[in-house]
Amino acid sequence: MNAVIFNVQRFSVHDGDGIRTTVFFKGCPLRCLWCHNPESQSKEKQLMFYKNKCVGCGKCLSLCGARGVENGLKIDRTQCVLCEKCVNVCSVGANKIAGTEMTVDEIISTVKRDKVFYKDKGGLTLSGGEPSMQPSAALEIIEKAKAEGINTVIETCGFGNAEFFKKSAQLGATFYYDIKAVDRERHKTLTGQYNDVILENLDMLFSLGARVVLRLPLIPNVNDSKQDLYLLREFLSENKDKYIRAEIMKYHNLGISKANALGVKYSMSDENATDAQAESWLDMLGRDENNVVLD
Description:
By secondary structure, the protein is an alpha/beta fold. The protein contains 10 helices and 13 strands.
């Protein structure tokens, strides 16, 4: 079985406990305004052109009918057929294809290379995008990792088929589960989807006694209003005995360069969240009472 992924990041320390190998799946059902990985949204392959890296050598112009020069190198994406010729000829990495197919066995083989570094806490993390968008491949990866004695973390928005989450929990996966907004209308405005399915799946995982770490992506002046934080604190308080901890994920602007490379609009601020803002969020969410920490 194949999975469509856009990155395998080895020696990661931000996607679960210990040293981990993170497999990033393409495809996501949400369209968060602040998306840090916009190349993950579509399940299809996409061309990324990093104009700031381009040295203007012109090698790609003779190979690609979608290329032209107008105040700098331009791409007509309606003409791009993802032939990858521009990627192969570019010596500075200005062109990149986001998305490739890998077999489950290829992924597991890559993960096993780092097994010696996992020790007690490390392991495999499935991220994205959204792993539940490719449920069969993701479950097969979890099963084979378990057979190798490698634990799995699933970073998820929670918007997916309940059976996937149930089976993943039964296989012993730990869930790093996003709560982006508690109010359903607010969630729809910010992500393009209501949060009903997300909260239903989370309740199911709680009922199964699954290992859940809540993740709280907070973006200044977007989802950190007094009302947003009040509802979030109330939610955490009601469920504090059901999750391991809640981690605040401070907004960072890494999505901007990726969106530009994809030729898509990105409307969020180029200012990262500050330490002072994060400290304020910790206090407002009840850091000790609700076991809230910074990622």
